[in-house]
Amino acid sequence: MNNFEYYNPVNIVFGKGQIKKLKDLIPRGEKILITYGGGSIKRNGVYDQVIEALSDHDFIEFGGIEANPQYETLMSACELAKKEQISFLLAVGGGSVIDGTKFIAVAMHHSDDPWKILSQRQSIQGATPLGSVLTLPATGSEMNTGSVVSRGKEKLGCFGDPRMYPKFSILDPEVTYSLPERQLGNGIVDSYVHVLEQYLTKDVNSPLQDRMAESILKTLIEEGPKVIHVKDDYASRANFMWCATMALNGLIGSGVIHDWATHMIGHEITAFHGVDHGRTLALVMPSLLRVQKEKKQNKLLQYADRVWNLSNGTPDERIEQAIILTEDFFNSLGVPTKLRAYNIKEEDINTIVESVRSHIPVNLGENGDIDGEKIKTILMQAL
User: Fold this and answer.
1) Does this model's pTM top 0.90?
2) Domain locations in the chain?
3) CATH code of the region 11-175
4) Phi, psi of 106 (to 5 degrees)
5) Is the distance from CB of 191 to CB of 140 less than 8 angstroms?
6) N or C: which end of the chain has fewer CB within 10 A?
7) Type and span of the H or E element at 317
8) What pLDDT is recorded for position 157?
9) Structurally, what CATH architecture does the domain formed by 180-381 represent?
């Protein structure tokens, strides 16, 4: 196992009816900016719960944060927050709203162009405290420091500063009852691939992290179909929500080597073709595993055995069957695994490759061996 430091101060408040605890989680005297997305929280009752819980607090609102939060929108929120002397931010929504709110929190304190925090990795100069009420499990943003922001065709992220951890995150599985199947499927795939990006890499003798990762994968496989097909099943929604948080709160990734090539390629598919983030991962991951199967052989065989119970056949046969079963799982959730499902053609691939290379000029993957030609091969095999 590699050396690591693990720190996570987020207070998770999990379960039914927990939104009412907002009144005690945010100190009185703070001036709060409530951020949210397109307004679904006003249709599903979450907004009313939040407003009731904060009835004795001083707050204003900012809605309209996009599914891929746009820099211009976030800067409008930032200007409002500075003008109103906001001292606490409350993100009510899924990963995009929470990501965007984290960026608002640091942009409020940045003396230079805040975009440079992402594009030039400028150091964060400060952060306004924030909390979250999670409405869509997927990204793990409710318990990590990550933030991904879009500006035109650029989609960039920043990670790592402990000031970007939420002070608390409320996770009530009942708020997912109103979500459409498409968003639920996206969230399950996103969580699953988060685990694979930290698990299907090099073997560094980390059996605890491996088995924790495998337990998340197996739980998602078991609970995912129920989330999609069984209406308002609290148990499956609760298990899914907690899996999504555990998939990217840093725990299973401590002391192990990460990949993230699938995410980097997927971001560009979103930028150029508007495909939902979770769906881009289902497009790229199976093909990437096939292209990288020799480099990932040991972990792929472990994945085949421990997650999919495949022990018969040659190594190549077991690996291929594990990838097929992964594709079948994604497809069973209503998430396609081929580019043609989104009318992405061979002639579109060079543009995607060039954009990946322009944003990340170094090779991708845990071995640093996924260059432009390999990215093209991965996408060609995903057609």
Assistant:
1) yes
2) 11-175, 180-381
3) 3.40.50.1970
4) -90, -30
5) yes
6) N
7) helix 315-332
8) 83
9) Up-down Bundle (1.20)
